[in-house]
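Hi R.,

As promised on Friday, here is the backbone we talked about, encoded as structure tokens. Could you run it through your design pipeline when you get a chance and send me back a sequence?
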């Protein structure tokens, strides 16, 4: 304890008697290192969260139920009964049946012009069911959602319709069709029908914004099938367990069907968050190494310039370990000061800015995904960098021969 008190005294004197501008610059650099650690990880986490929200809120929901691949039938039979079984699972918030269709949509922009023809994925849905599981209804940019859609109505994604500031203008689209205009749809089974566009939606996610929707009644008419579904989308309460547990619960309710979470449905695209985690690890490791080197250089230069003082301290009986501890305490002071100032910057400057000015990306608005775990890990990483950066140079200088240190040899 006595040695620690001496080390604290030496560290205090070294800091208070040192170059104030150098110390301030060191703390400023370390605070920027801390901001970089937290910011880069949180912005990439925000990107991953935005991707997950777009998929689960506007495309697949949390869990997708399909017919088993080995079954000859392409549909889920007795779909309403299956849906009721799924909705009785405690973790399920809502379920919606979908009929998957494919075909081409043609639009005559001008009477004399050649029709624009675009391939499209079309889904038949029940408006009220769909709203409980999927949030597309919140993103209408023209017209209205599926309510009152009827057998002659269709709604289109902005990337499919064209215009509306959509992000997919480089891909084939209908050239700017508007609500109230008519389009002709030729389905893959050869049936062709004319629909009036009831509305245009734009969720800012490419996969979703190229979809089209008709009523489930219309889809059943086209497919000549009643009380079935191509798939059932299931919205779950994530606070009641992990996704894997929720999948098991739903699978137990419908053992004859194929139950998958959204990451399995989206395949490699859903694994983007894992790739981002690897990038974050690499960048943060480099940032911590740079921080450790910065502290190393400052402590080493300081120790070299005070070799004579260190020699005198050792000559009067102050141990080598006490000298080393004093420099480690200095390094930790710099690191903790950088963490404190960096925390203020990230929490009260950077984070509020991104709340009001999120990144506008094709998949939607991306902000910072801050959490206490991320901040804690970043602080511990910088603290460890300070520990290493302070120990190595002080150990190298403090172990010199006393006479050589005093004479500066």
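Update: got your reply. Pasting your designed sequence below so it's all in one thread:
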């Amino acid at each position: 304890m006595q040695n620690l008190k001496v080390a604290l005294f030496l560290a205090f004197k070294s800091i208070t008697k040192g170059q104030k501008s150098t110390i301030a610059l060191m703390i400023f650099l370390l605070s920027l290192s801390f901001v970089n650690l937290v910011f880069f990880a949180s912005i990439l986490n925000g990107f991953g969260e935005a991707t997950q929200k777009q998929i689960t809120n506007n495309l697949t929901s949390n869990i997708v139920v399909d017919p088993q691949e080995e079954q000859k039938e392409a549909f889920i039979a007795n779909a309403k009964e299956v849906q009721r079984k799924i909705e009785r699972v405690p973790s399920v918030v809502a379920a919606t049946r979908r009929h998957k269709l494919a075909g081409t949509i043609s639009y005559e922009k001008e009477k004399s012009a050649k029709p624009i023809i675009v391939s499209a994925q079309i889904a038949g849905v029940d408006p009220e069911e769909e709203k409980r599981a999927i949030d597309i209804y919140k993103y209408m940019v023209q017209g209205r959602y599926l309510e009152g859609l009827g057998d002659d109505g269709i709604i289109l994604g902005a990337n499919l319709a064209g215009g509306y500031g959509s992000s997919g203008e480089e891909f084939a689209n209908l050239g700017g069709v508007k609500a109230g205009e008519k389009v002709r749809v030729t389905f893959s089974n050869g049936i062709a029908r004319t629909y009036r566009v009831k509305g245009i939606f734009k969720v800012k996610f490419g996969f979703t914004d190229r979809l089209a929707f008709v009523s489930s009644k219309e889809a059943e008419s086209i497919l000549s099938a009643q009380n079935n579904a191509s798939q059932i989308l299931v919205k779950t309460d994530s606070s009641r367990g992990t996704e894997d547990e929720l999948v098991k619960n739903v699978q137990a309710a419908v053992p004859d069907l194929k139950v998958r979470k959204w990451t399995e449905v989206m395949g490699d695209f859903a694994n983007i968050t894992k790739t981002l985690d690897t990038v974050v690890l690499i960048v943060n490791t480099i940032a911590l190494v740079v921080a450790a080197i910065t502290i190393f250089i400052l402590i080493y230069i300081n120790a070299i310039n005070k070799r004579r003082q260190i020699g005198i301290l050792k000559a009067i009986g102050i141990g080598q370990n006490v000298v080393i501890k004093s420099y480690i305490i200095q390094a930790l002071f710099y690191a903790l000061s950088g963490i404190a100032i960096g925390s203020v910057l990230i929490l009260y400057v950077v984070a509020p800015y991104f709340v009001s000015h999120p990144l506008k990306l094709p998949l939607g608005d991306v902000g910072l995904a801050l959490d206490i775990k991320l901040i804690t890990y970043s602080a511990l990483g910088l603290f460890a960098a300070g520990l290493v950066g302070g120990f190595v140079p002080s150990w190298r200088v403090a172990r010199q021969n006393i006479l050589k240190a005093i004479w500066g040899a």
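One thing I noticed while checking it: Residues 195 and 201 are 17 Å apart (CA to CA).

Thanks again,
M.
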